[in-house]
């Protein structure tokens, strides 16, 4: 371990070869991403903090590990257009923000919002899709930690 830094998810732990830390600069490891130790459950995740392909590891962590649903980029625009009384404008605005959806799919999305229902999850998921290349930015290595009760502890 070459260092640790507190983060709002837990602790980011950096690592490097012992030889490098002792001054042998030829022994430097390249591409060694830090680990995140989750403060909530003790799980350990390797995180790619800088990627040539871009991406936000913190957002990916929230989605994949913590299960936080990211905001729907289309919903507010559709609601605003419906509030002005135009379902056609709602479909148009939605298609501009989510060009991967067909006209029929966006109409189903808008119809659900007009009925004060959540839009279909499969369509919402596709409004959030990105074209980031490369592998995942967060990989779970271990955990979550399981607490050991006093009656199961080994002497």
Automatic annotation (TrEMBL):
Pfam families with a match to the protein in the record: Imm35
Region (Disordered) residue spans: 129-155
Domain Immunity protein residue range list: 4-59
Official protein name in the record: Immunity protein 35 domain-containing protein
InterPro entries, sorted: Imm35 (IPR029082)
């Amino acid at each position: 371990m070459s260092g640790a830094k507190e983060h709002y998810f837990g602790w980011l732990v950096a690592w490097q070869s012992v030889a490098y830390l002792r001054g042998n600069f030829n022994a430097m490891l390249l591409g060694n991403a830090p680990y995140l130790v989750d403060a909530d459950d003790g799980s350990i995740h390797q995180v790619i903090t800088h990627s040539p392909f871009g991406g936000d590891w913190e957002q990916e962590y929230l989605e994949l590990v913590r299960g936080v649903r990211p905001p729907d980029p289309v919903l507010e625009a559709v609601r605003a257009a419906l509030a002005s009384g135009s379902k056609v404008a709602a479909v148009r605005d939605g298609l501009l923000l989510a060009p991967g959806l067909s006209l029929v799919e966006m109409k189903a999305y808008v119809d659900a919002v007009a009925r004060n229902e959540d839009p279909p999850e499969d369509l919402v998921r596709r409004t959030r899709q990105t074209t980031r290349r490369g592998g995942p930015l967060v990989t779970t290595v271990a955990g979550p930690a399981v607490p050991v009760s006093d009656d199961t502890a080994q002497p």
